[in-house]
Amino acid sequence: MRTNQPQTIYLSEYKVPAYLVDTVDLRFELFEEGARVHSTLAVRRNPESTEGAASLRLDGDSLKLERVALNGEELVEGDDFEEIGGQLVITNVPAQFTLTVVTWIEPQNNTRLEGLYKSSGMFCTQCEAEGFRCITYFPDRPDVMARYRTRIEADKLSCPVLLSNGNDVERGDLENGRHFVTWEDPFPKPSYLFALVAGDLVEKQDTFKTCSGRDIDLRIYVEPRNAAKCEHAMDSLKRSMRWDEETYGREYDLDIFMIVAVDDFNMGAMENKGLNIFNSSCVLASQETATDLAFQRIEAIVAHEYFHNWSGNRVTCRDWFQLSLKEGFTVFRDSTFSADMGSPTVKRIEDVTLLRTAQFAEDAGPMAHPVRPASYMEITNFYTLTIYEKGAEVVRMIHTLLGPDMFRKGSNLYFERHDGQAVTTDDFVKAMEDASGRDLTQFRLWYDQAGTPVLAVSDDYDAERGIYSLRIQQSVPDTPGQTGKKPQHIPFALGLLGAAGEALPLLLESGDKAAGAPTERVLELTDASHTFEFHGLAQRPVPSLLRHFSAPVRVIYPWSREQLVFLMSHDLDGFNRWDAGQRLAVDVIQSLVGFSDDAGVEPRLVQAYRALLGDLALDQALVDKMLQLPSEAYLIELAASPDVAAIHRAREQVFHHLATSLREELIACYHRNSEAGTYEVTPESIARRSLRNTALAWLLMISDDTGRDLALQQLRDADNMTDRMGALRALVNSDYAAERSKALEDFYERFQDDPQVVEQWFAVQSSSDRAGQLPQIHALLTHPAFDWKNPNKIRSVVGVFAGQNLAAFHNPDGSGYAFLADQVCRLDDSNPQIAARLVSPLTRWKKFAPAYSSLMRSALERVRDKSGLSADLYEVVHKSLGG
Ligand code: TRP
Ligand code: ZN
């Protein structure tokens, strides 16, 4: 029935490789019916290895072996080598030798999108984490670093462009209308950074002058129809290159940097040395086809992949347990970059929203794991929010504890000390310690303990002595396989506000002078319980806790609604202003769960929102964020045993009540933010469009005819996708059924030839409780534009339905769960990586109210019992069923 149980790999069993590879010489013969890969490796025994074995073990997956030769001598199967459990084991090898391996692969039939595959007629690769072994036999682990030389041969007509890592050193014509290009990468790299692209692509070219005056040739390769959609990515690339020089002192190293866009891609993008490969949706943009959100996402991902050139490629991971070494650090870097390019407060709000909604849920679920996991079955299951987002928070905390100057010293030391090496998260922390002189021993627990720490905060005010005391108790919850955890080292940023909203000086000793005293401090929590005293306070202050979200923790404090309203309008930390608003809205919605009328909607919430809509002094991007009600997903995450339907109803009630009460203000907000002007992607104009679309969505939510007319007008007049999509989304989520279908039809008609826009069109329907009920979702799956081989399409229908259309997905009859189980099973045979990601909403079954959880569980069991279950899905399903 099932495949054999996949093996568990343990960090504690790490051994250095027995053999090293100095150079890899590759020759690819690409044909329509397959590809032949000739690989010649210069191999030598690793002097650091204590293993006595004289056998060389190479990884391989889905390969047809044609030839093996050692120092030019043909090897014989059975005598000289064996294929065991996917590995090629070559016996009795000398201490140093040349090994030649020839394999035959079929890129055109590769639906897993790992290794070499075809996407829209073009050959491309994805080797992280273990895809190189789908190309040839190789010690496919990141601590084997080699210099690569790659010759690609293909048909000149169908594949005029032939790319690989490094510099092109030779090219020429061959017989039968074929040609070749040879690439040489001077930097030793692990196999997961290898890349190859061959196809009919056009090139958008630019140059960048580095800080030391070198000219770098920048190229973005896309299909000819996308030629006009590269400008934003190119600008983003140049900004990233400049920023990394200025902020980290990191200069680019090769003479050429290439980006290629491919339509079929399992993730967002990949940092292959000198040849980044991107999911088309993460690189292509134009005013007419991409929303502001897409523009920002592209900038962030281009930056992320570019930054990997140092944090990932020059210094790479010793093994996959260290994945956060490159991902956590690089997310921290791209997040700071985005903050510098726009509004730091808004960027922080976005990052924390993702973290608290999705990473906290992961940390509380069956797949919870530390930033540095101790074991895994299938590494692709560990490209998680914990590794990326929590990993970035851990680096951010080091930055907070050390301060910017020491942090920079630490990162310089890290890059210098480990350039060209494959290292561990511990090496990273050590460099930070050595540069700063700080002891991060306890801090390291952030890498090893899973689960989100909880801080219970209580306070007291002694009027007579003028002392305000704050008690903070921390605990780290149990997670699968980890109990009885130790207190962690937590930076806790704090401010205190006086009655008029003024920032009060934070005096830790009774004699301290108020003048010049800081009004914000980072308290360092190291024990299970701390009490801090603040002196010289004439009145009880209002605390502003965990400013900037200085640590990825849950804070429990008995805020009164009055305090929250006060903080919403007075806190000097923009992040905490937003957070106070979120907490107030959460409190109001939670108090309505289970009640059926909106009589109980807190009038202070309405007043606060009215004030926001009229506050023109405040950064409008922040106003826009503050107007967004907490998502259903976040409300579910916060609830102990969520009844999804009740949460959905309560949130809708609050929405309706607010929109009805604020109708005039919303219409005014819409018009105020509509003044015509040329389209720009700047923080100000993004905020303007977003506010206007928020107002529109709220008006349509209450079936306001003025709102409907504005939406129809906006659809007619829009000169950009943000406005067009804003209007479409508002209509789709409204009760104007006729307008909704007309708008959807027109939209499709107009954009049907643009895959990225069609993906948005799918998503706007799948996420809607009006247009995305199950029968409609089924219809989308049979739509001519839907494609089971394309991960983006699958994500935009199935993923969005299960992840964003929560009331429909959690239909109490279980139909949403059964639907997801069906699609996951279907997908597992063609693309197990995507199947294992898609199933994740079901894995949270234990959290839900019993009526939901039993149905979720049985859907999951059905997946477990599928025949030929992949290792990817096996791990996720078995771990979440608890066995
Ligand atoms: N290293 C990539 C990044 O974060 C992630 C990635 C791209 C990936 N493609 C993948 C991970 C395929 C696993 C499988 O930038
Ligand atoms: Zn990355």
Describe the structure.
- The structure is a single chain.
- Among the domains are: 10-200, tricorn interacting facor f3 domain (Immunoglobulin-like); 315-448, Neutral Protease, domain 2; 461-513 and 522-550, Aminopeptidase N, middle-beta domain (Immunoglobulin-like), CATH 2.60.40.1840.
- The protein is globular.
- It has 27 helices and 31 strands.
- With 883 residues, it is an alpha+beta fold.
- Helix 16 packs antiparallel against helix 17 (721-732) and helix 26 runs antiparallel to helix 27 (871-881).
- Bound molecules: tryptophan and zinc ion (ZN).
- Residues 126, 128-129, 266-267, 269-271, 304-305, 327, 380, 383 line the site of tryptophan (TRP).
Descriptive keywords:
883 residues; alpha+beta; Neutral Protease, domain 2; Immunoglobulin-like; eight-stranded mixed beta sheet; globular; binds tryptophan
- Distinct bound molecules: tryptophan, zinc ion
User: Mind telling me the CATH superfamily name of one domain?
Assistant: tricorn interacting facor f3 domain
Q: Fraction of residues in helices? A: 40-55%
Mean model confidence by pLDDT: 97
Low-confidence stretches: none
Q: What is the strand and helix layout of this fold?
A:
Elements: E1 9-10, E2 19-31, E3 34-45, E4 56-59, E5 64-70, E6 73-74, E7 81-84, E8 87-90, E9 96-105, E10 115-119, E11 122-126, E12 146-155, E13 161-164, E14 167-173, E15 178-189, E16 196-199, E17 202-209, E18 215-222, H1 231-248, E19 256-262, E20 269-270, E21 275-279, H2 292-307, E22 316-317, H3 323-341, H4 344-363, E23 375-376, H5 385-418, E24 422-423, H6 425-436, H7 445-448, E25 454-462, E26 467-475, E27 490-497, E28 520-525, E29 529-534, E30 542-545, E31 554-556, H8 561-570, H9 574-592, H10 603-614, H11 620-627, H12 632-638, H13 644-661, H14 663-672, H15 683-701, H16 705-717, H17 721-732, H18 737-751, H19 755-766, H20 774-781, H21 791-804, H22 806-809, H23 815-828, H24 832-838, H25 840-843, H26 850-864, H27 871-881
Parallel strand pairs: 2-12, 18-19, 19-21, 22-24, 25-31
Antiparallel strand pairs: 1-23, 2-3, 3-9, 4-8, 5-6, 5-9, 7-8, 10-11, 11-16, 12-15, 13-16, 14-15, 17-18, 20-21, 25-26, 26-29, 27-28, 27-30
Helix pairs in contact: 1-2, 2-3, 3-4, 3-5, 4-5, 4-9, 4-12, 5-6, 8-9, 9-13, 11-15, 14-15, 15-16, 15-17, 16-17, 18-19, 19-21, 23-24, 23-26, 24-27, 26-27
